[in-house]
Write a structure and sequence with these properties.
There is one protein chain. The protein has about 120 residues and is mainly beta. About 0% of the residues lie in helices and about 50% in strands. Strands 2, 4, 5, 6, 9, 10 and 11 form a seven-stranded mixed β-sheet that branches. It has a four-stranded antiparallel β-sheet with strand order 1-3-8-7, with no helix packed on it. Strand 7 and strand 8 form a beta hairpin. The radius of gyration is 13 Å and the shape is globular.
C-alpha cells in the first residue's frame, strides 16, 4: 500500500485547511496522526472504510472532520478553527479492518498555524 498526502500549509489562527491522502491497495481504515516538534506522534482522527465509522481525539473533536471517497481510495481531513497548537507534521496511515494496527504510513504534510 502506498500513500500520498497533500494539502498542508501555513494558515492564520481560526483558519481552515483540508488534507487529502490517496491510498493504493486494500484499506481497512485510514487515520490521521500528527507530530509537533519535540512531542510524540498523536492520533487525530480515523475512519473505518466498511461503514465510515469515525473516531476523533478530544483535542480536535468539533473542529476537524474526517471523510472518505471510496471510488478514489482517498481520505480527507477538514480542519476548521485552527489553533497554533495544531501546528504539526500530519501523517496519514492505513489500518487493518479492525483498526487495531496501522501498517502503512504516508510521508507527512506540514501544517503551520501562525499569525
Amino acid at each position: 500500500v502506498q500513500l500520498q498526502a497533500s494539502g498542508g500549509g501555513l494558515v492564520q489562527p481560526g483558519g481552515s485547511l483540508r488534507l487529502s491522502c490517496a491510498a493504493s491497495g486494500r484499506i481497512g481504515g485510514m487515520g490521521w496522526f500528527r507530530q509537533a516538534p519535540g512531542k510524540d506522534r498523536e492520533f487525530a482522527a480515523a475512519i473505518r472504510w466498511a461503514d465510515a465509522g469515525k473516531y476523533y481525539a478530544d483535542s480536535v473533536k468539533g473542529r476537524f472532520t474526517i471523510s472518505r471517497d471510496n471510488a478514489k481510495n482517498t481520505v480527507y481531513l477538514q480542519m476548521n478553527s485552527l489553533k497554533p497548537e495544531d501546528t504539526a507534521l500530519y501523517f496519514c496511515a492505513v489500518s487493518n479492518p479492525s483498526m487495531t494496527r496501522y501498517d502503512y504510513w504516508g510521508q507527512g504534510t506540514q501544517v503551520t498555524v501562525s499569525s
